[in-house]
Amino acid sequence: MNERYLIKEELPDVNYNGYTVRILMRNSTSPDWIGDMFSDAETGEIISDAIYRRNAVVSERLGVKFELIRSSDNNYETDGVNSILASDDAYDIIVPHARAAFVYAEQGLCLDWNTQLKYVDLDKPWWDQDARNSFEINDKLYAMVGDISYQALAQTDCMLFNQTIFDKYNEEYPYQKVIDGKWTFDEFSRLVKLCSEDVNGDGNYTPETDVFGYVTYQWVGPIQALTNGGGRIVDKDENGKLALSINTPRNESVYEAYFKLLDTNNCYIELNRDDKSSIFDCRKVFAEGRSLFIDGALNDISYMRDMKEDFGIIPAPKYDEALDKYYTNVDSGTNLFIVPITVADTDCISAVLEALCAEGYREVIPAYYEVALQKKYSRDDLSVQMLNIIKDGRVFDIGYYYCGGNLGSTGYHLVKEANHSFTSFYARNESAVKTNIEKILKEYGK
C-alpha cells in the first residue's frame, strides 16, 4: 500500500448538504494558478486529472461543491479586500500571490490557522513546516500552504545542467557530489569557467550566438544566492519575534562571490530592459545547448521537453560544505491560502482545507512530483533522487514574502548596481526595514 495513505486526517463524519465553497483566485492559467485548484474533467493530463479526482473525493466525502471566482488581476490578487472590509461573506477561501496574501493579513482580514480553523492539523505531513514557522507573526498564522498546492513545489528553484557539455569536457556529472554534500559554489564556479566560448570570435559574448557556463534571470539567481548560502532576510530571534537577519559577514561573502562570477564572460544574466527582453531568452540559450547551467523553478523544466541534448536536474550549490542541506528558495509568486474573517461556517471550511490538503498529499503531489517530473520531463534516474533533495530544502523566507522591504529582493537590486555592494545597499535600506518590522510587531494581529 502507498505509504501516503497510511496517515489519515482526523475529520468528523459530516455532510454539508451541497454547500458551495467559493474560492477567489488569480485569473491565470499561465502560470496555471487556477489549475492548482480546479479541473473540469479527466482528460488524460496527469496533474489536471489528479486535481479533478482530489476535488471529487472531497466533494463527495463532505457534501460540498466548489466554485471558482476569478480575480480581476492575473498576478497580484487583492480583489477580496474591500468585500471583507464591508463584512460581505463573498468568499470562503482566497488564493492570492504570496506577497498579496499579507496585504489581507496585515489588515486583520484573515482567520488564524493556529486557533480558528478547527479541523486543520498543521502537524500533519501535508502542511509545510518551514512556511508555518516563517509566516507566524505575533503567534498569528494568517497565511499557509502545503500539499493543497502543487505550485508550492513547482515554484521551487533548482538547477539544470547540459550533459553533452559535461561530456565534452570530460567532467563527471554533479550527482555524486550532491549526494556527498560536496556540491558547493566553488565547484560550481570551476565548472562554469570551463566552457564559455565566443563562437563567432567578435570579442562580444551575446546570448544569440555564444556559449556560457551559466545563464540566469534577475529574479532567479541573484535572489537564490542568499538562500543557497543558508541565509535568510528575516528570521526569528530568541523570543520568536521577527528580526532582520541578512546583514552577516557570511551573507556579504555569499553575494560577493556570486556577483564576482556573474560579472565574467562565463555568465549571462537576463534583465528586464526597455527593449522588453524576457526570461525566455535564458531558456532559449540553454535549450539550444549553449549553456552548461541554468537555474529556475522546477516548473521551468517543462520548457525543456523538446531540448535535443540531455540535461540533468540538481539543487543549486551550497555556498560551502558547512551547510546541512541544499537550501532553495520558493518563488514569492506562488499561491498562498487565506480564509476571510467573514466566513460563516469556519468548521466547514477548515474541514475542506484539511481534506483537500491531505488528498493533495496522497494524489496530486505524487502526480506532479513522482509522475510528471520524474518520468516525463527529467532524463535520468539520478535526477529523480535530486528532486527529493530539492524538496527537502525548500525555504519560505518571510522577509522575501512580506516584511523585508527593498532588502526582501536584495539580489534583484544588487544585480543592477555596477559595484553590487551589499554593504552600501544594506546601509541605505536598514533603517526603513527595521522601522517596518517594528510596526508589524506592534500591530500585526491586533
Q: Explain this structure to me?
A:
With 446 residues, the protein is of the alpha/beta class. It contains 16 helices and twelve strands. The chain has helices spanning 46-62, 80-85, 98-105, 129-135, 151-154, 163-168, 175-179, 185-192, 221-228, 249-262, 280-287, 346-377, 381-392, 398-403, 410-414, 422-443, and strands at 19-25, 64-70, 93-95, 157-162, 212-217, 234-236, 242-244, 267-270, 291-297, 311-314, 328-329, 394-395. The strands form four sheets. The protein has a five-stranded mixed sheet, sandwiched between helices. A three-stranded parallel sheet has the order 2-1-3, covered by helices on one side. The protein has a two-stranded antiparallel sheet with strand order 6-7. A hairpin with a 5-residue loop joins strand 6 (234-236) and strand 7 (242-244). Helix 12 packs antiparallel against helix 13 (381-392). The longest helix has 32 residues, at 346-377. The radius of gyration is 22 Å and the shape is globular. The N and C termini lie far apart (47 Å). The mean pLDDT is 93.
